[in-house]
Amino acid sequence: MNVKENRTGNYRFTIIVPVYNEEENIYTLEEKLQQFLLHSLFPACVLFVDDGSKDKSLHRINEICVRNIPFFYLSLENNGGLSAALKAGIDHTFSDYVGYMDADLQTDPEDFNLLLRDIEDYEMVTGIRANRKDSFFKNLQSKIANGYRRMMTHDGVSDTGCPLKVMHTDAAKRIPFFNGMHRFLPALILLQNGKVKQTPVRHYPRLAGTSKYHLWNRLSGPFIDCFAYRWMKKRYINYHINEHNLH
User: Fold this and answer.
1) Within 10 A of 197 (CB to CB), how many other CB atoms are there?
2) What is the pLDDT of residue 215?
3) What is the mean pLDDT of residues 200-215?
4) Rounded to an integer, what is the distance from CA 133 to the centroid of its chain?
5) Cα separation of 110 and 115, whole Å?
6) What's the pLDDT at 222?
7) For the segment 4-32, what is each residue's pLDDT rounded down to a tens digit?
8) Could you name the CATH architecture of 8-235?
C-alpha cells in the first residue's frame, strides 16, 4: 500500500491513538495530550484512528482536531480491531518515530518521554505497567497470556500488553501485520534483528467507559495467534540492501 506523505512528516514523533467507543474519555485525553506536546523530547503530533465507533467519539475527535494544529485523525469505515487501527496509523505516519497509547487513559502520555530518551539506540522501547491498577481477575488473565506468549515467542518481554510503545517508523512499517499483531510487536521487531528495551511506566484504573476485552478474547486470541506467529517466524524474509544504482 503506497500512502502519500502527509503532515505527520513535519514532526519527529507521532502518537497513534486507536479509538473505539471512547466518547467519555476524548476530551480528557485531549487535555493530557496537549500537556505532553508542550514538553515532548521531540516535536510531536497526535494521530487518532477511529475504529468504526458507534458513539460520539468521531464527532469529538473532529472537534479537537479543529482546535489543535498538531492533532490529526483517520476514520475507518468498519470496526477492524486494534491491529487494523495500528496498521492504518503506521501506514499514514511519516515522522522519524511512532508510538501508540490506548484511549482509556490507563497510561499517561507524559511517560512517552521515558521511552523517547532511549529510542535512538533501540528500534522499540516498550512500557511495563508498574503497580497495575486492574482487578485481580484481569491481572491474572494478563499474567497467563503473557507467560504463554513468552514461552512461544521467546521475546523476553514481561508485559507486551502495555499500551505505551515507541518504535522507529521505518521498523514499524516493515512489521508483517495480521489480526492479533499488536500482542507481538516486540517479537516482530526482534525478527528484524532490532533491539527492544523495556521501561516501567505508570498505570491507572479506568475512570470512564468500559473495557473492550473479556476473558475469551484476552486468552483465546493470544493462544491461537501464537501458533500463527510461530508459523510465520520460520518463513519470515529479512533482508538489507548492501548497495544499488537506483538513484
Assistant:
1) 15
2) 43
3) 66
4) 20
5) 10
6) 61
7) 899 999 999 999 999 999 999 999 999 99
8) Alpha-Beta Complex (3.90)
pLDDT, tens only, 40-55: 999 999 999 999 999 9
Residues β-bridged to residue 99 = 15, 166
Cell reading at 219: 486468552
151/173 Cα distance (integer angstroms): 26
Q: What is the pTM of this model?
A: 0.80
Q: How many CB atoms lie within 10 A of CB 138?
A: 16
- Matching residue, cell 507524559: 110
Q: List the strands of the sheet with 196-201, edge to edge.
A: 71-75, 44-50, 13-19, 97-101, 164-168, 124-129, 196-201
Comparing CA positions, the residue from 90, 91, 95, 73 lying closest to residue 10 is 95
User: Which residue is associated with the grid cell 515467542?
Assistant: 153
At position 158, the amino acid (one-letter code) is S
**Cell numbers placing 118:** 532511549
C-alpha cell at 232: 510465520
What mean pLDDT value characterizes the chain?
82
C-alpha cell at 242: 548492501
Amino acid at 237: I
Residue given cell 483465546 in the structure block: 220
